[in-house]
Design goal:
The chain is α+β, with helices and mostly antiparallel strands. The longest helix is centred in the middle third of the chain and has 21 residues. The protein is globular, with a radius of gyration of 25 Å.
């Protein structure tokens, strides 16, 4: 860094350097963009001062009234202490993983599957969250174009070009309890997928790592595994972690919370006018399941809600499949092929279908080709539910084939109920009552 002039004449160098005044930040701007950046600051009445420039040498130099007051290698000020805390794999982990969901009773007929869907849809973790989010202003200067309950938030940056940014955050403490490495990767994969569902291209990651006391060797092991999982996942996807924080000592007595890393992914949308919403947006649109479904129920919403069970192994993260799915959906959005897109996560296809119907106010009729329970409630990753603009079905099928993403036509949007042929039918009015009544009943 070239010499940074400390310019406030009323303060000493120490006061300038150590001040913790709020509402300040430092930005690094390319030289050719400085004038444009300063013009933006003036437009929004933000005081901004150019204080230096980045150089190739490994020295941080600061001046005050023409005198050099700091000249150090930057790492000597930035590097923190390195802890070598005791780490130990939790003693009960093998027992927990061995107690998988395979022996749990599963619904064997249409009425049982119908009741299972309604139980999950009305559970606090999957019910409508708008009772909470509508209690504050979520519309930023009118430029919020997608908000709760969509897969990702989307904010318009430029009214002229339609440029926007998308953001999604995800975390699953059940998955991370069973395997903090894989669970963190699944949180990253889901946030990445949710951003792509809006039509935006994922570009960066942030995080909040929520754990118990790191002085507990088992908790420290969970934290280390989560960090390792996030690092490996980001390397695979090719997107950086640009910031984040930790929240530790979350426990009552000796009982810690589930390890719950929350991963945020930011994406760039070239034109928010081509955004995708999660709800079924057109009648007569072909409904397509993207991705592969396996029997993956460890840590699932079904196991927790219906059986209060936690055990086995979480689903497997597949970042190659996630990347191809994201590329397909963003390309299809840009080409105007899709009417909606919604990721599959907690509760599997059953919850995704119910939410797409509720968000868009349109029903659908679908046909399942495998075991109905697995098809409906498995939580396999790298999957999405899309509806295709009528008349563009062949183009989308060709694009999915080009990107190597399995695409299974389930049926079409129609009517005012969620109908699974030969299994069950649920009116949208009943779905909405179950979905929207939970949080007001608990907190209202």
């Amino acid at each position: 860094m070239d010499a940074i002039p400390l310019r406030d004449p009323n303060l000493t160098p120490a006061e300038i350097l150590m001040s913790e005044s709020q509402e300040r930040m430092m930005a690094v701007v390319r030289p050719e963009h400085v004038d444009a950046f300063m013009a933006i600051c003036r437009k929004w009445d933000v005081e901004a001062t150019v204080i230096g420039e980045v150089t190739a040498d490994d020295t941080l130099t600061m001046t005050w009234r023409g005198r050099t007051v700091v000249k150090i290698p930057p790492r000597t000020a930035a590097d923190g202490p390195v802890y070598q805390r005791p780490i130990a794999r939790p003693e009960n982990l093998d027992v927990l993983r061995a107690n998988g969901p395979e022996a749990l009773a599963r619904p064997a007929d249409g009425p049982g599957l119908r009741e299972t869907l309604l139980s999950l849809l009305g559970s606090p973790g999957l019910a409508d969250k708008r009772w909470v989010t509508q209690q504050y202003d979520s519309l930023v200067r009118g430029n919020t174009v997608l908000a709760m309950p969509e897969d990702g938030g989307l904010v318009r940056v430029s009214e002229e070009s339609g440029l926007g940014i998308a953001l999604a955050t995800d975390g699953n403490g059940r998955y991370c309890t069973l395997d903090p490495y894989q669970g963190t990767q699944l949180a990253l994969a889901e946030a990445y997928r949710n951003v792509a569902m809006t039509g935006a291209v994922p570009v960066a990651v942030t995080n909040c790592l929520n754990f118990g006391s790191p002085e507990d060797p088992a908790v420290m092991w969970q934290l280390a595994e989560a960090v390792r999982g996030l690092a490996d996942g980001c390397k695979h996807l090719g997107i950086p972690v640009t910031g984040g924080n930790v929240s530790l000592y979350n426990q009552t007595g000796a009982t810690a919370i589930h390890p719950t890393p929350v991963i945020g992914v930011l994406g760039v949308h070239d034109d928010v006018r081509k955004r995708l919403a999660a709800g079924f947006a057109a009648d007569g649109a072909e409904v397509v399941l993207l991705g592969r479904t396996s029997q993956e129920f460890g840590g699932s919403a079904w196991a927790e809600v219906v059986h209060q069970h936690l055990g086995g192994l979480p689903p497997t993260a597949d970042f190659d499949a996630e990347r191809q799915l994201a590329i397909l959906v963003t390309a299809a959005a840009s080409a105007g092929l899709l009417a909606s897109a919604h990721d599959l996560s907690d509760g599997g296809l059953a919850i995704a279908l119910a939410e797409a119907c509720l968000y868009g106010g349109r029903g659908c009729a679908v046909v399942l080709r495998g075991d109905p329970f697995t098809d409906l409630f498995s939580e396999s990753a790298a999957r999405a539910l899309v509806s295709v603009v009528p008349g563009r079905e062949q183009e989308f099928a060709a694009l999915a084939d080009e990107h190597g993403v399995p695409a299974t036509v389930l049926g079409a949007t129609t009517g005012d109920s969620l109908a699974v042929e030969g299994v069950f039918q649920i009116p949208l009015t009943e779905l909405k009552q179950v979905w929207s009544g939970t949080l007001p009943a608990i907190f209202g």
